[in-house]
Each structure stands twice: as C-alpha cells, then as structure tokens.
Write a structure and sequence with these properties.
The protein is globular, with a radius of gyration of 21 Å. By secondary structure, the chain is an alpha+beta fold. Helix content is 24%, strand content 28%. The structure holds flavin-adenine dinucleotide (FAD).
C-alpha cells in the first residue's frame, strides 16, 4: 500500500519556527517500502522533494510546490558489542533526545552531550549535530538510506557522509536525493566523560561534581540548554541560525587589532573559530525586532518568531544580520538551517 497522499497540506506544526507554509503534497513514511511505493505515484513524477524530520532545522520561506515526505521509521535495536564499542541501530523517525535518554537507561552512554537537541535521529547526520564538546561523527558507524535515483537502499559509512562542522554530503551533492531510514551508532565500552567544554566544566564545578557519571553530564547539559535556549514549543526558532565562522590566524590578528574583546577559539592548524553570537551582538542586533521576527535577547545566534512571523520576514532579518556583520567585520555568516 503506498502511503496516503495529502494535498495542500499545512506545515506549521512540522517546523519549529512555527511559520505557515503549505506543501502541494504531503505523506508520512514508516518504512523504506513506502518510499519505494512513492515512485509508482504518477502525480509525483518530476516534483521536488522535501524530506522532513522534526522540522527543527528548517526555514520555510514560502509554500512548497512538491512532495513533503515525513520520515517516521521507528525502532531502537541493540546490535551487541564488537571491538571496543556497543553498536545500536536507531530508526530515523525516533525522537533524538528520547533516544539519548533511553540508551543511557540501557547502559549505553556516550551521547549525553547531545541531549535535548530537538528533532529526529534520521536528521542527525545531515548537519553532523554537535554540542558541548561532542559531534555525532564521533559516535557514528553507518546509516541506511533510500536512494531515489537508484530506487534501492544503500548503506553509507562515515567517510561517505563526509562530515564537517555542521555539515555533510546531505547538505550538498546528496541534498534531497537520499532519505535516511536508520542510523547505526558505536558507543564506547570504556566510557569517559566529555567535560572539557567551559559551560559544562563550570556547571559541574558549581554542583561539586569532580568525577561525573554519564547521567550527571546528561543532567548538566539539559540544565544549561534549558537556561540558554528558547523552547520552540513556546517561541518559534531553529536553534543557532548561523555557523561560527572560521578565519585564518592572520585574519584573526587583524580583527583583534580593531576589536580586542572579539571572542574566538583556536583550532588545530592555526585557524580560529569566531563566536558568531559575539559578532551579531557587536553589530548591535542582539534583541532586535523587525516586524514579527527577532534576534533572541539571551542568545544572539538564535532568530525567533515573535508570533505570526512569515518565513520571508525571518529570512529578511537573517539577511540584515549577515549584511551588518559583513559591513562591520568583513565576515560573511553562513546560515545553519536548511532554507526552503
Ligand atoms: C532550540 C534548538 C536547539 C538546537 N540545538 C542544536 C545543537 O545544539 N546542535 C545542533 O547541531 N543542532 C541544533 N539544533 C538544530 C536541529 O535541532 C538539529 O539540526 C536536528 O538534527 C534537526 O532534526 P530534525 O529532525 O528537526 O530535522 P528537520 O528540520 O526536519 O530537517 C533538517 C534537514 O534534514 C533533512 N532531513 C530530515 N530528515 C531526513 C532524513 N531522514 N533523511 C534525509 N534528510 C533528512 C531535511 O530535508 C532538512 O534538510 C537546534 C534546534 C533548536 C530548535
């Protein structure tokens, strides 16, 4: 049975910015076979595809004249131990945070630094999610994806995913061409806390924890995130709207000469990652409001829907942020969410 097709389907509940947009067609898929069945649907021939998870890293700027496919493949399987890791497989439709917590309860720690990142497991490789000193790539083994051109399931290794900072091949050559149906993770048997990130270290110190358990790291990360980031259920947003830009050592030196309080983190090889939030704040935009869109007052990296904003309004504000930062610092900020 092919999945049921809905026409002129409202996507407001399927994007964490909470903007209004309609998809010409919409369907939910529970298995790879559903994706195969879509090929036989003449109405969809030649139409663009929009793959959807939790919609927490998307900005819909207008109606989508194609087929929006919500990937809801369920499942969490313990594949056992091999070498120095526990292997698990997670269906693309599973909620990410709930998965992190379930694995912890199953005695499979290793993802706790990525707690409370909204969205579903299937989208985690798209931008190689990262937070508080850990990236998905460090726990990733492989994934299974439906290839729409070849009409078959393919397995992809980490190398084939070409992970980078908030980046992967799915944002480039394979954008919209493969639907991830499950991911496999390798969680270290010899678990070690990842507690070096300044916020985490500070919070642990405040709680007088010197040798944290995985559960304690999880609790600390959840507490920090609840304080700093707006809850999309209350105020529409997609988390960080811009990536932190990376500059050369010389560029960094030149910037520091003019802006001594500029915040940057040295990277291996002499390059420096700049805090985009600092640049936006210094450009005078923290807390700014344009129409119904805004720059979040507690964290300048987050653009918010103050109520009833359109995707176009949010995009216009993003462009203004980019222009002002470029004008003041000569740096072009790159958006993190996928703009549709
Ligand atoms: C409050 C808040 C905090 C956040 N914090 C972080 C953070 O700390 N670190 C971080 O990295 N991100 C963060 N994000 C961004 C976001 O939560 C993650 O990128 C998340 O992985 C997106 O998952 P999703 O299911 O919502 O994806 P969606 O928004 O539904 O989709 C994102 C992209 O992935 C594609 N996609 C989705 N599912 C599939 C699939 N199964 N197969 C192929 N393509 C697919 C979509 O087409 C789209 O291009 C945050 C967002 C919010 C709202």
């Amino acid at each position: 049975m092919p999945p049921r097709l809905h026409e002129q389907f409202p996507l407001r509940a399927f994007n964490s910015f909470g903007v209004e947009a309609r998809a010409r067609f919409f369907c939910r898929v529970q298995a790879a076979a559903d994706l195969a069945a879509l090929a036989a649907e003449p109405k969809l021939a030649g139409l663009p595809r929009l793959l959807l998870g939790g919609g927490s890293n998307l900005l819909l700027t207008r109606d989508f004249d194609g087929i929006a496919i919500r990937i809801e493949v369920p499942g969490l399987a313990d594949l056992g131990a091999a070498d120095d890791a526990w292997h698990v497989e997670v269906g693309a439709g599973e909620n990410w945070h709930a998965t992190v917590e379930r694995l912890l309860a199953m005695g499979r720690p290793g993802l706790e630094n990525l707690a409370l990142i909204p969205g579903n497991a299937g989208a985690t490789p798209i931008q190689n999610i990262g937070a508080y000193g850990l990236e998905l790539a460090e726990r990733f083994e492989s994934l299974a994806a439906w290839d729409f051109d070849q009409q078959r399931l393919v397995r992809m290794s980490a190398a084939e995913c070409d992970f980078g900072y908030r980046d992967s091949v799915f944002k480039h050559a394979l954008s919209g061409r493969r639907a991830i149906v499950s991911i496999r993770l390798a969680l270290p048997k010899q678990w070690q806390p990842v507690a070096g990130y300044a916020d985490v270290a500070h919070e642990l110190k405040g709680r007088a924890i010197t040798q944290p358990t995985a559960r304690e790291i999880f609790d600390v990360v959840v507490a920090i995130r609840r304080r700093k980031l707006p809850d999309p259920a209350k105020i529409g947003n997609a988390g960080s709207f811009f990536k932190n830009p990376v500059v050369t050592r010389d560029e960094h030196r030149a910037l520091i000469a003019h802006h001594p309080s500029l915040v940057g983190y040295p990277l291996p090889g002499g390059r420096v990652k700049l805090a985009a939030a600092w640049l936006i704040d210094a450009a005078g935009l923290k807390g700014a409001t344009r129409g119904r869109a805004g720059v979040y007052e507690k964290q300048a990296l987050v653009l918010v829907n103050r109520g009833g904003a359109t995707g176009a309004e949010i995009l216009a504000l993003a462009r203004e942020v980019q222009d002002k930062v470029a004008e003041k610092f000569g740096i072009v900020l790159e958006p993190e969410p996928v703009i549709v």
